[in-house]
Amino acid sequence: MKTTIKVVLMNLLLSMSTMVKAEIQVLACEPEWGSLVNSLGGKQVNVYQATTNQQDPHHIQARPSLIAKARRADLLVCAGAELEAGWLPLLLRKSGNPDIQAGKPGYFMASDYVTLLDKATTLDRSYGDVHAAGNPHVHLDPERLLKVAQALSQTLIAIDPDNQENYQINLNSFTQKWLNMGQKWRKQTLSLTNKSIVVYHRSWIYLQKWLGLNEVGALEPKPGIPPTSSHLTQLLVRMKQTPADMIIYASYQDSKAAKWLSQKTGIPTVMLNISPDEGESLFDWYQQLIDRLVKEKK
Ligand SMILES: [Zn+2]
């Protein structure tokens, strides 16, 4: 009798476990991709973010806790185009997880689905130590972001076809809202067209292109090389002749050089969150970014 009950219970548990499919475990390299996966995956995904918007995604440590997350991930979502070249290859190797290696369905690099700006045309790296494959900061362009969203939704369906309908519904509502917000942002930012900016790193080129901002200088002498005094002195001379409208830097970047140049020239500095805060939607993040730029411009 007891054995019969046991067997019945076990069968019941088994059938329940096949009914309730486990969530897809996602490792997102940057907060923007974590936020996007949450919007597109809804209840079907459990997302862990490797970095916050207070960390420089070019340079983080493949720490043991991160390796443990990579080991259990079904899907890896990153910017790609060498943004994570300093740590992702090691993380992937140490994870020993075959599902998220390059070429597998669980390996998703956003840059693979959009055209990149700033592709190096020659083999010499005089342009800088980073981003020879093209500029990877693609999430700052609303149009490119939507293309990535479509591709990412397809990837979720490929990994978890049982929930295809849910993913489709989520993508449709995300797309609709994103397009509506995009129109609003365009109107809101008309006054930014042709404003000139100095940046810390070439993090913003997709945003610049979308808004019609002109980059007239960078605090880094070359992408990935921290500001030097000789470079800053040259920049100062230039800014005294033709001042820019704003100096822009990301929340994780050192503000010293930006503030120095601002003090010497009177050009205002603008600190922007290059990625969403933890739990923040892409809609809210982009809105505050736009609000800040519009408010701070001269
Ligand atoms: Zn970069």
How would you sum up this structure, described in words?
This protein is α/β, with parallel strands linked by helices and 298 residues long. It folds into 2 domains: 20-184, 3-Layer(aba) Sandwich (Rossmann fold), CATH 3.40.50; 188-296, Nitrogenase molybdenum iron protein domain (Rossmann fold, 3-Layer(aba) Sandwich), CATH 3.40.50. The protein has helices spanning 2-19, 31-41, 64-72, 88-95, 142-159, 164-188, 205-211, 229-241, 256-265, 282-296, and strands at residues 24-28, 45-49, 75-78, 107-109, 196-199, 214-218, 246-250, 269-272. Strand 5, helix 7 and strand 6 form a beta-alpha-beta unit. The radius of gyration is 22 Å and the shape is elongated. The termini are far apart. The relative contact order is 0.12. The chain binds zinc ion. Zinc ion binds next to loops.
